[in-house]
Amino acid sequence: MWGMKDPAFPPSQSLPRMRAAFPDHVVVELPNAKHFIQEDAPERIAGAILDRFG
């Protein structure tokens, strides 16, 4: 999961590296979340966890 407004790890720089390093990894993009995604998008995170492991 990635906060698309993250100032600490900007997605434009960080996501390409993450995807290259872990090509089979699914990244859930959280469009309005910043660095603390659990505070900015708790429902989206819970839903993604349930989708993956539920």
Automatic annotation (TrEMBL):
Query: What residue stretches are annotated with the AB hydrolase-1 domain?
Result: 1-42
The secretion signal range is none
Query: Which SUPFAM superfamilies has this protein been placed in?
Result: alpha/beta-Hydrolases
Q: Which UniProt keywords apply?
A: Hydrolase
Source domain of life? Bacteria
The record ties this protein, via InterPro entries, to: AB_hydrolase_1, AB_hydrolase_fold
Record-given protein name: Alpha/beta hydrolase fold family protein
**What organism does the UniProt record list as the source?**
Mycobacterium xenopi 4042
Taxonomic lineage of the native organism: Bacteria, Bacillati, Actinomycetota, Actinomycetes, Mycobacteriales
